[in-house]
Specification:
Length: 383
């Protein structure tokens, strides 16, 4: 049976009873365990015991929150670069796409603020305050001008200088002008010529140059020679229809001022014939400055050259015969007056008439309805 041994005031301890042998006394019992000694100092790293075998891997824990950029792990090695494929040919270039629509113009930006006075350019150097005393070696009257004063070249008995004063009319010459310009010529019957017309001119002062041009382009321009007052346009001027040829004089003064003037070289008009005649004529033939009527009806002298005979008066001396007037054709027949009375004329007879210059045109022949008139009668073309 077990033995109980007292153990002081904290109780008792029970130990098994050792087996008994068959002879003598049995073994003695084990004494009490001594008190626990103090823990020794920690061993050093070099005294670490052998590492035990690795235990099994535990299950994967839950994924933690995303790490920050600063916690990015190291970049892995770059993979192998594949080989370059064959290049495409120029013929395989794709078609150019259409041009895109033009965008709308943007709004105008706001106006910038005005520059400040501090941005003004630099001021030039101050003047010396000294008046000029000479110009072209000629003395200049010293002193600033007052309103309307200018420097005027002045010559006295003793000196020449620029005087500072207001201009007067005596200081100013007339402006350069062409006082007259004319060309010999005048009004001629259509087809007649004017040959080598002369020009005449006068000026307020002799010009530096002058020339004459004309609308026919004959001997044009004609350069005149000093004193530029005359010259001759070499050539023949004529027109085969009513009209005119004009000339222009262009003169340039010594100061470079240009003036022009115009004149007429030639005016061409058809002739009108008027006079006494016998009744019954139906045509006429030119003879110098007259028109000879057919059937011995008489000869009509030329009364004049007119652009229009309306308003013209023809005076005819009659001796028991009629009045005949041959004039260029008009679409509407003329009407006639003798004083304040209508002068009766037959309806005109129209025919082709070749004048003395060889120009043919359409003419109208008028005869008075009265065939036995006497005395002097003045007949006006009223319309």
């Amino acid at each position: 049976m077990p033995s109980v041994i007292g153990k002081g005031r904290y109780g008792r301890e029970t130990y098994p009873e050792p087996p008994r042998s068959s002879g003598g006394g049995g073994p003695g019992f084990t004494g009490p365990t001594g008190a626990k000694g103090a823990t020794g100092a920690p061993g050093s790293a070099s005294n670490t015991g052998a590492t035990g075998s690795t235990g099994p891997t535990g299950s994967v824990g839950a994924t933690g929150p995303l790490g920050t950029a600063a916690n990015t792990g190291a970049t892995g090695p770059t993979g192998y670069t594949g080989f370059t494929g064959p290049g495409g040919s120029a013929a395989n270039t794709g078609a150019t796409g259409p041009t895109g629509a033009r965008g709308a113009t943007g709004a105008v930006g706001p106006t910038g603020v005005p520059g400040s006075a501090t941005n003004t350019g630099a001021t030039g150097p101050a003047g010396s305050g000294i008046n000029a005393s000479f110009f072209q070696s000629v003395p200049i009257q010293v002193g600033p001008p007052t309103p309307s004063q200018v420097y005027v070249g002045t010559v006295t008995d003793s000196s020449t200088f620029f005087a500072l004063r207001q201009l007067t009319e005596d200081d100013i010459l007339p402006g350069f002008s062409i006082d007259s310009f004319s060309v010999s010529g005048g009004t001629v019957e259509v087809g007649a010529a004017i040959t080598n017309p002369t020009v005449s001119a006068s000026y307020s002062a002799t010009p530096a140059s002058a020339s004459v041009t004309n609308t026919a382009g004959i001997d044009s321009p004609l350069a005149l020679t000093t004193p530029f007052t005359s010259g001759t346009i070499v050539g023949s001027f004529s027109l085969d229809a009513p009209g005119s040829i004009s000339a222009t004089l262009t003169a340039v003064s010594t100061g470079g001022v240009t003036r022009t003037a115009g004149a007429t070289v030639l005016t061409a008009e058809f002739a009108t014939f008027a006079g006494p005649c016998a009744p019954g004529a139906t045509s006429a033939t030119a003879s110098g400055s007259s028109a000879v009527l057919n059937d011995s009806a008489g000869t009509l002298p030329r009364a004049g050259l007119y652009g229009s005979i309306v308003g013209q008066t023809f005076t005819v001396d009659l001796t028991n015969n009629c009045v005949g007037i041959l004039t260029p054709h008009t679409a509407t027949p003329h009407t006639w007056l003798a004083g304040s009375f209508t002068f009766p004329m037959n309806a005109p007879i129209t025919f082709s008439f070749e004048n003395a210059e060889g120009v043919t045109s359409s003419y109208d022949f008028y005869q008075s309805t009265q065939t036995t008139l006497s005395g002097t009668v003045a007949i006006e073309c009223a319309s």
